[in-house]
Amino acid sequence: MNIVTEANISGKPIADKTHKRPVRMLRWFVIVGSLLVLVVGGIVYFEYWRAGFIKNIFANNKPPPVAVTIAEAKSEVIPNLLTAVGDLAAVHQVNVTSDVSGRITEILFQAGANVKAGTPLLQLFDGPEQGDLASFKAQATMAQLSLERARQLAARQFGPQATVDQAQSAFDQANAGIAKTQAII
Fold it and tell me: 13-50: per-residue pLDDT in tens?
């Protein structure tokens, strides 16, 4: 049993047909290759032309001439006093700031005067600190008297050494309070 799936019009078997495709394919390769060579050649030529063109522009480019203004020099007398509107700024100036806040009770310098380092410039209101200083001085005096009594009693062996140590501690604390308050003042 023969099953024919394709009509054979010419009577020749299908396998005997000749194919012309390789010739067409070769022709397309030649055309595309030629176009590719033309495009690459055009790009290379354009780059060569552009480099020469830029070199030519820079070779012929000269800077414009410089504008010069001249004037005749002459001598004039300049007055020592000039009238002008403006602001003045000192060459050497000091901004005075305080580490503590408070009310200023006295200014101890004149404007524009020269002052030396360490010279007091302002007096702040220090009434509470002066009161604390007087209190610590009174405590120091009392602690010193107590210390002397405690040492005399301990020397005669009528009092313990602990009393001497306590009196010494109270005297040192009062002196520390005096030093701290004086530093604040």
Answer: 555 555 555 667 888 889 999 999 999 999 999 999 99
Using CA atoms in the order 72, 75, 79, 82, what is the torsion angle rounded to 10 degrees?
Answer: 20
- In the chain, pLDDT over 70 holds for what percent of residues? 86
Type of residue numbered 3: I
**What size, in residues, is the chain?**
185
Q: What is the pTM of this model?
A: 0.42
**What string of DSSP letters covers 12-66?**
S-GGG----HHHHHHHHHHHHHHHHHHHHHHHHHHHHHHHHHHHHHHHH--PPPP
Q: Residue 75 corresponds to which tokens in the numbers above?
A: 């001598």
Look at residues 138, 120, 119, 136 and name the one whose alpha carbon lies nearest to residue 180: 136
